[in-house]
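The material for today's practical consists of a large collection of protein records. Getting from the letters to the C-alpha cells is the skill we practise here. To make this concrete, we reproduce a full record directly below:
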Amino acid sequence: MKRQIIFTLVVSLLSFGMIDSAVTKDKSDNIETMLIDLEKQRELELLKIEQERIRIEQYHQEELQNFLNAIGHRESTNRYDVVNRWGYMGKYQFGRSTLKGLGFKVTKQEFLNNPQLQEEAMMALLLHNKEKLQKYIDVFDGQTVNGMLITESGILAAAHLGGQGSVKRYFKNGKVFRDGNGTKITSYMNKFSGYDIKLKPNS
C-alpha cells in the first residue's frame, strides 16, 4: 500500500513536470515568434525609411537638373559651344575671371569642347555662391520681398547673373544690379525661384 502511494506520487510529479515543460516550451516558442515578427517589422520600417530617403534625394536631384536646364536655356539655349559678344562662354556663359577664381585653368577651346567640365564649373559656382550667401538664404528663403517669393534657387540664379555681391547689396539696401543686356538680378531671382534644389556639397 505504501509502495503504491509513493509510485502514484512520483507519477503525478513527473506528469506535472511534463506539463510545466510543455507550457515553458510554448511560452518560449511564442516569445521567439514575437521577436522574429518584431525584427521583420523593424526591417520593414528601415526599408521604408531608406526608400523615402532615396525618393527625396531623387526628387531634389530632378529639381536641380530642371533648374540647371532652365538656367542653361536662358543663358545659351543649352548650347555648350556658344560665346557671346562679351566673351562669356558655354551653356552657362562663364567669364574667364570666374573660371580662374574657381580654380579652372583651361583654354577657351578646352572649355567649349568639354560639356562635363562646364557642368562641373557650374556646380562649383553654385556651391561657392551658396556658401557666401548662406546667411541670406537662411533669413529670406520662403519670405516675400517686394512682392516676390525668395527661395534658395532664385538667390543662386541671381548670383549667377550678377555675382554674390549684387545679391548682398539688393538685400541690404535694395540696389538692383543689371547685366550688360539690361537684365535685372531680380528678374532671375523671380524667374528661377520655384526649384526645390536643396543644394549641398557633392550634389
Notes: The chain has a mean pLDDT of 86. The CA atoms of residues 34 and 40 lie 10 Å apart. The longest helix spans residues 2-76. The helical segments are 2-76, 96-101, 108-112, 115-140, 152-162, 164-173, 185-191.
